[in-house]
Amino acid sequence: MGNQTFLVKDMPNFLKLLLTFCFEMEFYLKIAISCTILQQVNYLLLNNLQLNFISQVVLYWLIGSISFYSIGILIEKIIKNHNIWTEKLTVRVKKVKKQSFPNFTLTGIITGEIKAFIAALIILYLAPQVDRGNSLVVNLGWFFMRIVVADFCFYVCHRLLHTKSLVKIHLKHHEFKDSSSFVAGHKSFLEYIIVTIADILPIFIFGYDITQLCAWTVIGNIYNLEGHSSLSIFFIPSDFHDLHHTNFQGNYGIHSFWDRVFKTLQSINKKQGIMFPTNLTESKMNSIFDNSQGPAAVNK
């Protein structure tokens, strides 16, 4: 009976660790699966086309730019214009006074697109190209490794940008405590270069297939814009990045995995719902254990 009591006593801690692990992996798997599905579509569309280097650069740049603006407008002008949706999707607990995002200017858009095109040109010129076809297993594995490594590279880069010697480079991005989706692209030119380098490092490690790269840039824009929107729609399961903007410290990664590893995680409020099954499961398990009578119930 003693062993039985011991197991019941330790079960909540074990489940908590398991659910925390599932919480972290859920985000990575969502990214990997979504990218893989989109890559399969890209493969069907592009497989029979002979794309030279310039064609690949233009395609990569156009898909990245079009998806960035269209997804941002969808969040800001459609989703946020419905109060019921906004209230349902908001995770933020600490309310912050809203700040209007500066109006887009033609000069700003042109400058941004020139930077994006140059970045696409450099990435595809320097990175090794590898044709991986339409294998689901190979592509899923590539995207999973890509997001985990990209998260680590971003964590290191972002944490360095919060050191005394580099923080001035990052201040433009932190002009907004209550963020709009488009804050994702609101950064100084030097920070843009640093973050771009951090983002392309995994491509040099794993190589790229143009169908993979186009899928990655769309899904990357979705979670990046969602992460800066103060909403929890599909990929973002908590107020993780909201807290970083509010408090200007901690929560340096794309997601919370590496912040847990390096102990820089601020306590997060998790969004429950069908889009976030781990959080929903954790909430139900907490309710079960809160209502249980512990070892006494087992001993009966």
Would you give an account of this structure?
It is a single chain. It is built from 12 helices and no strands. It is mainly alpha-helical and 300 residues long. The longest helix has 45 residues, at 2-46. Mean pLDDT is 87; it is low at 1-11 and 296-300.
Structural class: mainly alpha
Counted beta strands: 0
**Spans where pLDDT lies below 50 across 5 or more residues:** 1-11, 296-300
Q: Roughly what fraction of the amino acids lie in strands? A: under 5%
- Rough shape? globular
Average pLDDT works out at 87
Number of helices: 12
Rounded to the nearest angstrom, the radius of gyration is 21 Å
Order of secondary-structure elements: HHHHHHHHHHHH
Question: Main β-sheet: number of strands, strand sense, barrel status?
Answer: none
Fraction in helix: 55-70%
Head-to-tail CA distance between termini: 11 Å
Brief summary:
The chain is mainly alpha-helical and 300 residues long.
